[in-house]
Amino acid sequence: MKELTAHTACLSLEEIQNYAKGRLDEVARFRVENHLLDCPLCRAALDSYMANPDETLGADVALLQQQIQNTAHPKMVTMQKNRFNYVAAAIVLLVLAGAATAYWKYTRYDRLYASFFNAPKAGDAIALRGENGTPDVDPSLNQAISFYDAGDYAAAIPFFENYLQRHPDDFQAGLYAGIAALNGGYPEKAVEQLTAVSINDPKLFDEANWYLALAFLKQKKPADAKAILENLSQQAEPVFAEKAKGVLERLE
Amino acid sequence: MFNPYRMMFNPYRVMFNPYRVNMSNQFPTLPNKSHLMFIRGIRQQALKDWTDERLVEAFCETGDQQYFSELFGRYTMQVYLICKQYLAEKEDSREMVMRIFSKLLETLPGAEIRNFRNWLPVVVQRECLNHLRKQGRYTPLIEIEVASPEEELEIYPATEIPFGESEITAALSQLDEAQRVCLNLFFFKKMSYQEVSGQTGFPLNEVKSYLQNGKRQLKKQLLNLIATK
After folding, report:
1. Are residues A44 and B84, on separate chains, in Cβ contact within 8 Å?
2. Does ipTM exceed 0.90?
3. Chunked in runs of 10, what are the mean pLDDT values of chain B (229 residues)?
4. Which of A 135-194 lie inside 8 A of B, CB atoms?
5. Cβ contact (<8 Å) for A75 and B151?
6. Selected residues 181-220 of chain B with any CB under 8 Å from a CB in chain A
7. Exposed/middle/buried for A158, CB within 10 Å: 0-12, 13-18, 19+?
8. Taking the CB of residue A142, how many other CB atoms lie within 10 A of it?
């Protein structure tokens, strides 16, 4: 007589449906009716079902159970949300770090150029030239040198060009024109000008090559700059050799 | 040129270092999503074997919703049917089930519950009636008999009560005549409610009532008898 006191499981949907339709055998019917004696919840549910039998009950209940399960793990959901936030934050940080690194690398040669570029004063060379009986100072060259020494390299460039059209063999002026182009924002023009000087004037070879190497750095062509700098570090005058070594160390 | 960073983070040094220790043997791997799903699945399966009391206790102690979800999930169908009886509309009933679920999540830890299954229909009825009142509707489609106060306070039998034929006879003798007759026919002759009604001539509702109250009284008598032994 365990049925008298034993705790029995609540009725399933099938049991309620089959009991309501009188489809249960004696054993199953007894289990249902015995359980109903103890369970007000199943009694009320059965009353409701018998008053309004619903064939879609199973689907409705399944939907509800799914909803309940979906709200069953708020900690997990929170954790997943937090995890998503952490992942998003990590991605943003990585992107920022990547962008910063890329920017740092991209501007590396500009920084290197800025730390090593130092324009020589041109006015002294021009003045000396006049005193030694060299050709008279051309007004264009004079104007170019004025702008150049004042640091206005972009303004100096057209005057240098004007002068060099008439005096293509003045490589001293060509060197300053190249330096003006380099610092005035025309590194391609500087490379052209400085290459011509370094090829044609052995006295200005080291100096022209030094600025040529800086022009390649400015153009972000480290391999070309490195080739010139290695040559300078081994064969140039001590002033340029030391400078070249300094840049090479930084390039490493 | 010496580069300390290169020494520290050189991947080749790590990959080809003959003294490298297999770290995977020393440290457990971090749980990934599939691990967590697996663990959760095992846990959910384990909770299915828990009693209502244990789930209520665990939920009240930890506040972890999964215990209550397992508990409420067991009775979703019954709660939905009761709501449907009061509210008629399916959509309203579904909303009410979820509302009751949410409300119990908050109120259950403070409630004194001796028998969740018997306490639940009282809560459902109260919530449905409150809802109807707010809508200006005061009566359900039909009256539903929810748990009596006695049933609501009834505790689960902690274990099966050990008793023999003499105890049953003694306990039955303490009951009303109508209750005793109905219980005899139901439990010993295995008759249905309908058959008991036909045999005794009592209306069906009275048979149910005699059986419910008689069974409850019988259990009490048996417990008393065993306690005094």
Report:
1. no
2. no
3. 45 43 44 57 73 88 87 93 90 93 88 84 90 76 56 52 76 90 92 94 94 88 75
4. none
5. no
6. 186-187, 190, 192-193, 208, 211-212, 215, 218-219
7. middle
8. 15
